[in-house]
Write a structure and sequence with these properties.
alpha/beta; 9% strand; DDE_SF_endonuclease_dom; HTH CENPB-type domain-containing protein; HTH_CenpB_DNA-bd_dom; DNA binding
């Protein structure tokens, strides 16, 4: 009789016999969640196919683990980090010889000192060699002092200040650094990043801001949230295109349309009510309104004009009087928080149903609600609508 064909047999894996092992194996490939922005860089291996040099922060974790477990063997430390789960931070692969090297008193002391004095440098993989530690330390303290004083610091200022410290500390000429090669290393070691400064919030006394907030809280406590209002003007460039573009090659800029108008924004603290925008331009009858009365548009457009396209005492009084008449018919009293611009302060009219409360000077960036994002969102929605029409 002919021999029967042999059937191919498949070896049964352990994971097929035990579903829990299959789940454990799959869990090793699960990506971790997002890290905080200020988290230190780590070379911890989250998947088995990755291996990198350890950062100073990784070695700090190893040293801290040994300090928490006195008497632990070095091999046990190597095995622990080689099998550390993703939830605990991922695996760290290193040899017992490398561990022994980093546990030497001088290495360990330098690592702990680095963590205490300059934690930003823990993301580096190599220990930074500093030719003149005293100059480096003095320059770092100088940067922190300038930051506390709200003073700007540039690369050229760092180079000049280093020369002064080297001269003051009598550093020999052969140890003094020349050029700018050290600058990037210094900025990286001290976590220095170039930022663009915006606004004038830094020039305000924070203690005065707290006092102003307490004053406003006391005043607002007498009104219901829906009866607390804020109004503010903003400049508006309706025809100016974006200054950035997507293109296949560099593109030269063109002359920008600098046509400007002002807009008055007003809303209550709950966001349930808002008044129609008031626009102020330079021309009484712009071309866009040719043959059209803005007040008869749907919806009606509240438009006024003067030579500077800005709020004046006359326009502010007109706006307040119109709103006060409406509130009087509703038998309603409200609180209106506004800044002390000349057009507001010069008003002599005293509304019967609106309590006008002026904010302290130079504090609108902290206590003005419309400056806290309402106006920015309004302009963003306008830009989005403008982009759709292009």
């Amino acid at each position: 009789m002919p021999a029967e064909p042999k059937q191919k047999s498949r070896a049964i894996r352990a994971s097929d016999r035990d579903p829990t092992q299959a789940l454990a194996k799959a869990a090793q490939h699960v990506k971790p969640g997002p890290k905080p922005k200020q988290a230190h860089r780590s070379s911890a291996i989250l998947r088995q196919d990755r291996r990198q040099n350890l950062t100073q922060y990784d070695w700090l974790q190893v040293v801290q683990h040994i300090d928490k477990n006195p008497g632990i063997k070095q091999k046990a430390v190597v095995d622990y980090f080689a099998t550390r789960s993703t939830a605990e931070g991922g695996r760290l692969l290193f040899t017992q010889g490398a561990l022994s090297k980093h546990l030497k008193p001088d290495k360990k002391e330098a690592l702990l000192k680095l963590a205490a004095e300059n934690s930003a440098a823990l993301s580096n993989k190599r220990e930074r060699i500093v030719t003149s530690p005293e100059v480096d330390r003095a320059l770092g303290f100088w940067v922190l002092d300038m930051e506390q004083k709200r003073r700007s610091v540039t690369g050229a200022m760092l180079i000049e200040q280093r020369k002064r410290f080297e001269e003051a500390l009598k550093i020999p000429d052969d140890r003094r650094l020349r050029g700018t090669g050290w600058l990037d290393s210094f900025k990286k070691a001290h976590g220095l990043i170039e930022w663009q400064r915006h606004g004038e919030a830094a020039s305000v006394n924070l203690e005065a801001v707290d006092a102003e907030r307490k004053r406003l809280v006391k005043i607002c406590s007498r009104y219901a949230p829906e009866d607390i209002w804020n109004a503010d003007e903003t400049s508006f460039f309706p025809s100016m295109p974006p200054d950035r573009t997507l293109c296949t090659a560099p593109m030269n800029g063109t002359k920008q349309d600098k046509f400007r108008i002002s807009a008055l924004v007003a809303c209550n603290s709950t966001g349930t009510e808002k008044l129609d925008l008031m626009f102020i331009g330079k021309f009484m009858k712009p071309r866009v309104f040719r043959g059209v009365n803005p007040a008869n548009m749907d919806p009606p457009l509240y438009y006024r004009a003067n030579k500077k396209a800005w709020m004046t005492a006359e326009l502010w009084t007109e706006w307040i009087r119109k709103w006060n008449d409406k509130l009087r018919r509703q038998k309603r009293h409200i609180l209106l928080l506004i800044d002390n611009c000349p057009g507001h302060v010069a008003m002599t009219y005293k509304p019967s149903n609106i309590r006008v409360e002026f904010l302290e000077p130079n504090m609108t960036s902290f206590v003005q609600p419309c400056d806290a994002g309402i106006i920015r969102c309004l302009k963003a929605h306008y830009r989005q609508a403008l982009a759709i029409r292009v």
